[in-house]
User: Fold this.
Amino acid sequence: VTPPIVDRRPLGERILLDTRSKGSERVALATLAAHLARANDGIVQPYGVSGDGMLDDTQRDVDAAVARVAAIGLDADGVVRVDDSFVDATVGLSKQLDASAVVLDWSGPSVVNDYLLGDDIDGVGGAAVVPTIAAHVLGPWHRVVVHLRAPSAAWERLDAELALETAHAARGRSGRPLTVLCSDDDLVAQLLPGPAVDELVTVLRDDEEHAAVIDGLQPDDLLVVPAHVIRDVPPLRAIRLKRTLQNVNIVVVGGPHRLVLTQSAAHRAVSPNMLPTRRG
Assistant:
């Protein structure tokens, strides 16, 4: 696939960070957002959405997230929106605050949620005009693994690029080891030019090696994957993977309108083929 010519904003320029408690460990989630922002000298904006009677609790969650990000050494500015719809409020805030990406706390892979129930991850990811990241992070990570595949459309290549940018940022200042799983030599050459590869970057091109790495992921690994790779896994393999990955740090990345993980009827109408309409 010919690389599309897109003038894209840096992913970490202004991170909108979800402060709900959905399954991630809060320090780990703040650390991920901070790594993304730090890679682009950006800022983190923790946010909360409050319904009637919950404003004080939401404000406390946002203030605590601001403190966590500040303790890591980054600028953070919290915001609370009163709205009955988390999805509408998040999409509205991403526009109002000119976010470069939204980081959502995600409960992780779940067969029940993915095949029977709707999820507001899909609601935000399908409607947001900026990249969206679903993060299920349970603790510190010491290696980053990014799983890509040969793109069959321009938007898949864009999401592979976003996933690799996320993975590089997640390495942090210490330069954690990065393992890239991709069998497409052209994509590797385009996304990992010579200067970007160092002695801590390993590229594996064999599909059997890919399966072995994924099946052998440990709690102190961080898996980064574009949303379309997760969605397109065959059903039986998906069920096995979702059980395997429940206790693994995993981050799923999708471009504007393209982070749709569930298979529920409520979200089948969301098109993953929409290319970004706003690039800065």
Summary: The beta strands are 14-18, 43-50, 79-82, 101-105, 132-136, 143-147, 178-181, 201-204, 221-226, 249-254.
